[in-house]
Design brief:
The protein is mostly helical. The protein has 4 helices and 2 strands; from the N terminus they run E-H-H-H-H-E.
């Protein structure tokens, strides 16, 4: 049996992504920290709540910011003591999520486009 849907949807749950149990329920502390970092960053730039101007950024700039936080964490330790005291990992997560959002909004598929995937294959694209 072949499915043409890249995401291999379960017909019982078609269109019903497990947003809470799949993401919020699994990573509540991490998401809360990323939200705190997002609010701090917006306030630092005098942006109104819900401002989405980061979507105008180049995803490569966000990749560079992620790289800087990875290096800073390796050199300085897990906390960003230079300007805010947040975990570098939280800032890395924010940069990664912002980059992903820009890419998806720009039309980049969320998964490598596979025309046909057999159910019994073990070769899933991760």
């Amino acid at each position: 049996m072949k499915k043409t849907d890249t995401f291999m949807k379960d017909p019982q749950k078609d269109g019903k992504l497990p947003v809470f149990s799949g993401v919020m329920g699994r990573f509540p502390r991490a998401l809360k920290l990323v939200a705190d970092i997002s609010e701090w960053g917006a306030a630092r730039r005098d942006l109104p709540p819900g401002d989405m101007s980061f979507l105008d950024m180049d995803p490569n700039d966000l990749r560079d910011a992620l790289g800087r936080h990875l290096l800073d964490e390796a050199i300085e330790g897990i906390y960003n003591l230079k300007d805010n005291g947040f975990l570098h990992a939280g800032q890395q997560a924010w940069n990664t999520l912002a980059r992903l959002e820009i890419m998806l909004e720009g039309g980049v598929p969320g998964r490598y486009p596979v025309d046909e995937v057999e159910d019994d294959t073990e070769e899933y694209i991760v």
